[in-house]
Amino acid sequence: MPWICLGLAGLLEVVWAFAMKSSKGFTLFWPSLVTLIAMVASFALLALAMRSLPLGTAYVIWTGIGAVGAFVLGIAVLGEAATPLRIVAALLIVAGMVLMKLASPG
Fold first, then answer.
1. By three-state DSSP, how is residue 4 classified?
2. Cα 86 to chain center, whole Å?
3. Buried-exposed string 6-28: b where 16+ CB fall within 10 A, e elsewhere
4. CB–CB of 61/93 below 8 Å?
5. pTM of the full predicted structure?
6. Which pLDDT tens digit goes with each residue over 27-78?
7. Under 8 Å CB-to-CB from 18, ≥6 apart: which residues?
8. What are the boundaries of each domain within the chain?
9. How far is CA 44 from the centre of its chain?
10. Which residues, 6+ apart, have CB-to-CB distance to 89 below 8 Å?
């Protein structure tokens, strides 16, 4: 269950990052509201996961899902560049997440 909470928390981090970008600096109401709701939900699920997962593991996985998810969404939806170096960087983040999971109990 903590891993499910952590995965959902990471996905909500992607949601709030995208909504924040869409809010144009918190000048648009609905994207700003989505940002705040997704942030609170993401932090709450992260806190639940941290009840039984090590701090370092939970935080690395949470930020990694958010970083790589935002990167992919930026390419797919916002037309951001998918250069070879950026792709390698994202793959290194994923590799770090996998290693952290393999090295952690639970």
1. helix
2. 17
3. bebbbebbbbbbbbbbebeeeee
4. no
5. 0.92
6. 999 999 999 999 999 999 999 999 999 999 999 999 999 999 999 999 999 9
7. 70, 73, 77
8. 2-102
9. 14
10. none
3-state secondary structure labels for all residues of 38-99: HHHHHHHHHHHHCCCCCHHHHHHHHHHHHHHHHHHHHHHHHCCCCCHHHHHHHHHHHHHHHH
Q: For the chain, report the end-to-end CA distance as a whole number of angstroms.
A: 10
**Long-range contacts of residues 21-25, Cβ cutoff 8 Å, at least 24 apart:** 21/78
Pull the structure tokens for residue 75: 């390419």
Q: Which two tokens stand for residue 30?
A: 């609905």
> In the structure encoding, which two tokens stand for residue 70, read together?
């935002």
CA distance 68 to 73: 9
Copy the structure tokens of residue 39.
Answer: 């942030």
Q: Note whether 97 and 61 are within 8 A (CB).
A: yes
